[in-house]
Specification:
Chain lengths: ~325, ~290
């Protein structure tokens, strides 16, 4: 299984790297968009898939990251510093937001983050002196890194892909560390985790804050990609879409968000024929998927693969049941 | 002073509508752990049932009855059996996602098959302005208040004074025990879905003359219902009612006296304050954590 997984990931990586060779600029733009959405969804997957908390604020964090980057770059700050700042700002905001919400159980984080998203939208729209109000911020330059300009579509694609791979590697490493294992323990059985001496609240808060900062970093790539940001892009709809991406791809699977983001980018393009009925169809598909396979696409594949392997060589019972007589 | 009275009365009127939505929302949560993220759309849609019935020639009162009947069928029965029931075994999260998708679905249905334009909606009472203490109060606000309070009182009587209502409360508090005592738990859960559908249809009839019937109305209404439910107390019907009124009045007052551009922000700040200091809500009970 593991080798098969490695082969699939390797093939996918090669495909993604070679993509610009046979795509038009618009396709390459979609590829960069896929990378941005994957980063944001990956951050949300930490909160949702690993720590088991519903957040409806990931879109707002993407927005905060994008505005931070755009404002700093307009002020003449070099891109790498703006990028790091976006992550730090979102980390601190996430921490402050999660602190009260995670005091209580149930799905309070969902409601608090919902309210937060609405609040962030209001600030972006109303504080014209800072954010440009409904007109947004335009003319965000694409970064020049170590003398390498990412101005072209292809070079920016590779840039966003590089950020995606770096962040994915970082997240992968974190999830393999004792820290990441603690996140999973929280989702699987919070009370057992608590009894094993894990400070559940602190770890959940950490997972949420780190997920939020990754959202902010995706905003830092989004801003120079589209070069024009406005409040409406970061309204509740984006947060809901990101949530759907994680779920559709398979929450709790490392590569789930990548698949979910791919669906979210490609489906509207493929279904362009049916135009405005697209969202209708998407909603129905999500509902059907939730009813029959709440683990998402990767969950479905995982299950299919397992039954296939079982059929080929049915598992032998490890121990013969002993005959006991009394 | 006159303006203050005006603002409070109209705030109470919208607050009463929020209360209806919040009550339905908490009922679903209590009996079946359903967090209905489509509650706002549940209030947006019945207005279109009524408009369609009127378009086909029904008088307004009959159209309202048809609207309530259709809501019972689609937002009550179909919602329960097609969406909620298959999902319950997977836990809370998939159902949350599914209701989010459902809200998208309902919005797109109205946009694509009815209209994306705001539709005028007839009001229950002729718009006459009454003068009292120098304030101008429209009959519309008073009618909204009267109908909403009537609905809430009827619900209160149903829940607290009848056998059926007590059986429903028992189901909400401890389904296993209720089952042992011979209460048909499944049917009680179904009743709460039907009550929610009726409450949504009534709220829709009351709010649509004010906000017009529009496919995007669901989102702000849904957020108002969540806020009211959490501020008042998620596990108490009277908490939801209190939350609705607080929200309506606060919204009006803050828009008038503090800042109209940040109108939506004050309820959110109250929400965060409530969660900080009294997470069970103003009137809520502390729930024991279950393993």
């Amino acid at each position: 299984m593991n080798r098969l997984g490695a082969i699939i990931v390797g093939a996918a990586a090669l495909f993604v790297l070679a993509l610009p060779l046979f795509l038009k600029p618009y396709g390459i733009y979609l590829g960069s968009m896929w990378a941005v959405l994957s980063i944001a969804a990956m951050g949300l997957n930490l909160t949702l898939g690993y720590a088991g908390q519903v957040s409806l604020a990931q879109g707002a964090f993407v927005g905060i990251g994008a505005y931070t980057t755009a404002l700093l770059m307009h002020a003449g700050v070099p891109y790498p510093i703006a990028f790091v700042a976006a992550g730090l700002v979102c980390f601190s905001v996430g921490w402050v937001l999660g602190y009260p919400a995670l005091r209580v159980q149930h799905h309070y984080l969902a409601f608090v983050t919902l309210a937060f998203t609405a609040l962030v939208f209001l600030v972006m729209r109303n504080e014209e002196w800072l954010t440009g109000g409904t007109y947004g911020l335009s003319g965000i330059p694409r970064p020049v890194l170590f003398g390498w300009s990412t101005n072209g579509a292809v070079s920016f694609y590779y840039f966003s892909l590089g950020v995606l791979i770096a962040l994915a590697a970082g997240t992968w490493w974190m999830l393999r560390s004792p820290w990441g294992r603690a996140f999973v323990a929280l989702r699987e059985n919070p009370i057992r985790a608590l009894s094993l001496g894990l400070d559940t609240r602190r770890y959940t808060l950490m997972a949420f804050a780190i997920g939020s900062s990754i959202g902010g970093l995706s905003g830092a790539v989004y801003a120079p990609l589209v070069q024009y940001i406005e409040p409406l892009s970061f309204a509740l709809a984006l947060s809901l879409n990101l949530l759907l991406m994680v779920i559709v791809g398979g929450s709790g699977y490392f590569f789930g968000p990548f698949v979910g983001a791919l669906v979210a980018v490609l489906l509207p393009e493929w279904l362009r024929v049916i135009q405005s009925y697209y969202l209708l169809l998407y909603a129905v598909l999500v509902m059907v998927m939730m009813a029959f396979c709440p683990d998402g696409i990767l969950g479905l594949l995982h299950r299919a693969l397992k039954t296939m392997i079982f059929k080929r060589n049915p598992p032998q019972p490890a121990l013969q049941p002993e005959r006991t007589s009394r | 002073m006159a303006t203050l009275i005006q603002l409070v009365v109209s705030g109470l009127a919208t607050g009463a509508i929020y209360a209806l939505m919040a009550v339905g929302f908490t009922l679903l949560w209590q009996t079946s752990q359903t967090i209905n993220f489509a509650q706002g759309e549940f209030v947006m849609v019945p207005a279109f049932f009524i408009l369609e019935a009127m378009y086909l020639g029904a008088p307004f009162w009959l159209a309202i009855l048809i609207g309530i009947a259709l809501s019972l069928l689609l937002l009550g029965l179909v919602f329960k059996f097609v969406i909620v029931d298959p999902m319950l075994k997977h836990g809370v999260l998939p159902l949350v996602i599914s209701t989010i998708a459902l809200s998208l679905f309902m919005k797109e249905m109205v946009k694509n098959f009815y209209s994306s334009q705001a539709q005028p909606f007839p009001s229950l009472a002729p718009p006459i302005d009454l003068h009292a203490f120098g304030a101008v109060i429209s009959t519309q606000s008073l009618t909204v208040l009267a109908v909403a309070i009537g609905a809430v009182v009827a619900l209160h009587i149903l829940l607290h004074k009848t056998r059926l209502g007590r059986a429903m409360q028992a189901t909400a508090q401890n389904p296993t025990l209720a089952q042992i005592l011979g209460i048909p738990v499944r049917r009680m859960v179904l009743y709460t879905f039907l009550i929610n559908a009726v409450l949504c249809a009534v709220a829709s009839t009351l709010i649509s003359p004010i906000y017009l019937a529009k496919f995007i109305n669901g989102e702000p209404l849904g957020i108002a219902a969540f806020l009211a439910a959490i501020i008042g107390g998620f596990n108490q019907v009277r908490g939801a009612i209190l939350g609705g009124f607080i929200l309506g009045v606060l919204d009006n007052l803050s828009a008038a006296y503090l800042s109209s551009t940040y109108r939506g922000a004050f309820p959110l700040l109250i929400l965060i304050a409530v969660i900080m200091w009294r997470p069970q809500g103003l009137l809520g009970r502390v729930e024991e954590r279950t393993v």
